[in-house]
Amino acid sequence: MDDVFEVQDDISNAIVDKLKVTLLGAKEAAPAAKPTRDAEAYELYLKGRYFWNKRTEYGLTRSVEHFKLALERDSDFALAFAGLAEAYTTLGIYGALPPDEVMPLAREAAEHALDIDPGLAEAHNSLGCVRAMYAWDWDAETDFKRAIEINPKHANSHNWYASNYLTPMGRLPEAHRDAALALSLDPLSLVMTMSVGVQLYFDRRYDEAITQYHKVTEMDSSFGIVHYFLGLAYVQTEGHADAITALERAESLTGRSPEVIAALAHAYATVGEENKALGMLDELIERSRERYVSPVLMSQIYAGLGNFDSAFEQLEKAYSLRSCDLIWIKARPVFDVLRSDRRLGDLCTRIFFAG
What we know:
By secondary structure, the chain is mainly alpha-helical.
């Protein structure tokens, strides 16, 4: 590990030499700047990335721990600060921690990264997410575009631009484009493969979304979050048995995360299993006394039960908390039953036009 960066340089130089890149009109590339001189810090950073890609609360929490350990060894390790920002941002996206706690931490870590290296795409990408998802500052597009300008081949910049900006803004054709581009840049990524399906789901192309999600399960059937999205898509196609099977699988793989419980309760509500739905709603209410549970999840269940007044009460609570998952309110099919209610239009106006 002590020579890992020298080995990387040797490999890069050998490849450049063998490919004769000067035939493409390129000059000999200078050796890439080393992200850190501390091999152990770099290994901790890589472990942080590994856990971040799990996309579970446990995995995200472990990723934060590893990025912090890397920074204890090298306080100028910009990539570790960027990783920490992405981990905190993802914890906010998944509603694992209160938005007013985790999103300022994400912003702080991103800004530290940019103080060290202003040309770090990962940090600009996270900053864009914080501005869009927490501040509801829709000029955040400049941060996403800056990330992509710096590194057009950074898959997660395209992915988050699609999912966390273009989709909430209703720009679905562009979201499809960037999600597909992210996958082309990282074709073996479970997250990028799944994200293409998420965009199809938001576009109400449910059968195509289901097909895409099955590509993920064929790659790794233990990737819990994809079973969650698969269940959501099956609900919309009225494949209720398949939906419940998928969501129960997600439930076991994610440690009964609140968003999976809410989706399962909504699925039960849509098939008339009101008692099961109410039981899960009570569970989330009880859990919310000990940890953050996004009110958007409660609203989803109430919407499935046809209790629209309670659904809007929860959405208003989410608004007051600046719940990150509220930005998808215009896109999510589970809220289509509320579209004709002027209260939803009023809420969207406040989120997207009044910030």
